[in-house]
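Sat 14:20. Reprocessing the chain from the morning session after the first attempt stalled halfway. Input below, unchanged.
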Amino acid sequence: MLAMRILISLQLLGLTLLCVGIFHCQASPRYTFVVEETPYRRLCSTKNILTVNGQFPGPTLYARSGDTIIVDVYNKGNRNITIHWHGVKQLRNPWSDGPDYITQCPIQPGGSFTQTIMFSSEEGTLWWHAHSEWDRATVLGAIVIYPNRGATYPFPKPHAEFPIILGEWWKEDMGQLYKKTIQNGGEPNMSSAFLINGQPGDLYPCSKPDTFKLMVDYGKTYLLRLINSAVQEIMFFSIANHKVTVVGSDASYTKPFSSDYVTISPGQTIDLLFTADQSPNHYYIAAKAYVGGAGIVYDNTTTTAILQYNGNYTSTSIPSLPNLPSHNDTKASVHFTGSLRSLADQNHPVDVPRKITTPLFYTLSVNTLPCLNNSCAGPNGTRLSASVNNISFVDPSIDILQAYYYHVNGVFRTRFPNFPPLLFNFTAQDLPLYLQTPKQGTEVKILKYNATVEIVFQGTNLVAGDDHPMHLHGFSFYVVGWGLGNFDKDKDPLTYNLVDPPLLNTIAVPVNGWTTVRFKANNPGVWFMHCHLDRHMSWGMDVTFIVENGKGLGAQILPPPPGMPPC
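Finished this time. Tokens:
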């Protein structure tokens, strides 16, 4: 009776008990997420958007390294939803990872699901977002993971910290945009505006009064937790007249380096220090799209916020804009990303796999599928598609994790190839049309527990070469190499950085180029890997990994929680 009273009291305080064995229990923070339609006004018009708790962007989650938190998700919206905790490895706990039809079926309107978010080595900035259709445009928020109590940042403590979330806004309903794009087989309509912390900024109509303002004191240093939540675009970001110092990315610390601008992929987070060391005034913070592919339609507008110094001074009437790189400046994009290095000190060591047991070579392609009477909106009446190793992923009818765990036959096959079926000049300007048509299927790749995996991602110029920000659930990986053009298996590995490569969960494979990543498959479960340009993911640029159980309870998938959403 006493134990029951204690449990009820803790639940009323918004806590839950997690127990290891019988005697070791700790209270974990508990959040409530209510997904609901909320009216928001942007660009002179109002529309209903899906939000969490009526907020856009949604609430920030706070944790410390190694914590576990509980989130009760209630779907009071008008369509299916799932929530993904982007970059949280969720050791042995794929049940709460979130991608629809991969680790769970969606939470239906009126339904609910309690998700357990288990942090391990992550430290810095991550984020959460919807992982169903394109609802992450408005269902999203930051995750801040502080060092353990008694530990400190590996850089001087900032005066204050601010999340800066880049996003996109469409005047049309996101559900209708998704359905129309899938039905007609063409490119989605480009966004109506980019956003900084939910606001378009001064350069858009009906937007100036609500422009986000970042208030600073002269001489103080600040930490910006930069998140790119844009649905379709890699972004350039800069602060006029102020340099930033990169100190982390994807909840992993980096060697500090100074830059005038940042390149950040959808899904990626970057931690930045800057010092308010300029003449007190108003300065623009700005972001715009980077698009490396030729002929790709994109939103060419610029979103702004205002960096405003506190105090009494005479400000200029118009803030100065930063000098952002040109929209197609691939050199600037890869220069920034290629400058990332792991901190690799005594307190933050690296563990780069050296002996590779599972080498994989994955081509990333935009493709086309034939349409009856050439009636689709893709090139020459075809339907746009995308693939990895010429396989365009097809969602199953029930989630792959459930099918794997309960041995349900017929849901997926395990024949995903280690290498592409055909070798050709992947980045040539003129490629034969027959190469454009992929195979379709629900194929998965099986990885042995503790396998050391190397993936060479090779972009191709089929249909339209493009950058591909690849995100892996359940792991962080070391980015050991990259280059433009075709990967050379004899020469390029000689240039790998095995000393201090960045540890990331999302990396942009450059347009018509390659990137090599390495990781150890020490997290049993079903884990999704996909391009974080949502149009490419929806077209099938996805791979599902099944990491087999190891020996012993500590190397096996946890049992499913109660209340999994029905299929």
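Confidence is low (pLDDT under 50) at residues 1-25.
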